[in-house]
Amino acid sequence: MPVVRSGEAVTHEIHGARFVSYATPLTGSRELCAWRGEIPPGTRAPPHTVNREEIFHLLVGDLLITLDGRTERISAGDTVIIGPGATLAVENPAEHTAISWVTTSVGLTARLADGTLLTPPWAN
């Protein structure tokens, strides 16, 4: 039984946010990835288009989520379902760090508006 202890999780930082990955192929997951996102106050992640469905659950705080041009304020306890091919942007306008939990399938990539392809190590 693979158990990933909190001290064994791998941390990555990009666009001002921290991603702490728990479930990846490197930790024994074959199909799914899961990570905790820490989004500091004032962070604005650039719009990016994902190739896999993501389930984005906000554990702590408030965020502005823009999905395919429509912006919603979400609060702790809210879940956003992001379909493959959707364009997503995340902003933390609050004064406190927001914490999320994200689950997706192995192989997630994200394409920035300038065409740059990101292969996040926490999702592969």
Characterization of this structure:
This protein has no helices and twelve strands. By secondary structure, the protein is mainly beta. Strands 1-2-3-10-5-8 form a six-stranded antiparallel sheet, with no helix packed on it. It has a six-stranded antiparallel sheet with strand order 7-6-9-4-11-12, with no helix packed on it. Helices cover 0% and strands 55% of the residues. The relative contact order is 0.27. A hairpin with a 2-residue loop joins strand 6 and strand 7. It has strands spanning 10-14, 17-23, 32-39, 44-50, 54-60, 62-67, 70-75, 79-82, 87-91, 98-105, 110-112, 117-118. The mean pLDDT is 95.
Could you list some keywords that capture this structure?
single chain, 124 residues, mainly beta, six-stranded antiparallel beta sheet, 12 strands
Order of helices and strands: EEEEEEEEEEEE
Tell how many strands the DSSP assignment holds.
Answer: 12
> Helical segment tally?
0
Rounded to the nearest angstrom, the distance between the terminal CA atoms is 20 Å
- The parts where pLDDT drops under 50 for at least 5 residues are none
Which strands sit side by side, in order, in the main sheet?
1-2-3-10-5-8
| Helix content class | under 10%
Shape: globular
Main beta sheet strand tally, sense and closure: 6 strands, antiparallel
Strand content: over 45%
Would you tell me the overall average pLDDT? 95
**SS-derived structural category:** mainly beta
Backbone CA Rg: 14 Å
